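Example record

The entry below shows one chain as it appears in the dataset: sequence first, then structure tokens.
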Amino acid sequence: MEKFHIWDVISVLNLPSAPSGRSSYYIPCPCCDSKPRDKHLNINLRKEVFRCPKCGVSGGIFDLYVLYTGIPREDVREEVAERLGLSEQSYRPQRRVVIKEVKESPVADIEARHKTYTALLEKLSLASDHKDNLLGRGLREDEIAQLGYKTTPVVGMTKIAKELVQEGCELSGVPGFYQTEADTWKFTVNQRGILIPVRDGKGRIQGMQIRRDDVKKRKFRWVSSTELKNGCKAEGWTHLAGLPAETMLLTEGPMKADVIHALTGLTVLAVPGVNALTQLEIALKRLREQGLKKIMTAFDMDMATNPHVQKGYRQLLLMLDRMGFTFGTYLWDGSYKGLDDYVWKFCLKCNRP
């Protein structure tokens, strides 16, 4: 029986191919991207799978074909072979995709990541325009300093990485760090933006996100060094703003969670997206041991009009019900997209010192 590869399906469907040497790349998602420049669907050639973190659509080789053609899955093998002009006996991959083999590192333990990220942030500063942006969201200067937000370094990262190694920090397995061909450690961030620490229930930095300057789409991205020598991917960790409590808010994005907590004092748990449930379930199990009983969701109000977000939200509610939590939903004036915007601009702005 013939064995197809995902690049065969990509070729048949005339989808964009991967940049030279890369095994993972993004293309427009046929389910939720409405503009050609939007690119949320990730295709992983090495694992031969695809996934969109925005709407949650995912699958393997034949699922990708079904996604674009709509034919029954049981008919895919025959149709792909026909379109390739092949029979079961004569099948050979028409086009071999050369995937550059890169040895990545497994994710380091939380203590090692926290130590390295903390030391890194202490060596960085926060630019004045980034401080103004955070102040404009309702955060005070002392809160910004406590949260550890910094401006991404665009130069000098080889020197900083060397200093971190000399200080006893572990860089292998810490997302964002990697080695050059000359075995020199570096940090991947090469675009200006705000570095956002993503913390666990004990305040330890698990990973970091970057809020990128001068972009309209995918403004928030994980700091990752996947597909780089001894690099490491981020795991999509949750972020806790505030101390564990019996009732917590659940929202999307660590910066949003930090702002809501600062303005209201409520404990807020953030996921990177409404479809990112794997790490959320792990976090909820730990928080339940610390007394969590009730969860109030507070996702952006455009959820009401976005069917892809609604699908992920339904899966989230099913998970909360299965885990035995009491849950509900916060609603607010729809002219304010996020709860952070509503609280700051409508409720508490005049009362913040």
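Notes for this example: DSSP finds eleven helices and 15 strands in the chain. Residues 87-94 have pLDDT under 50 and may be disordered.
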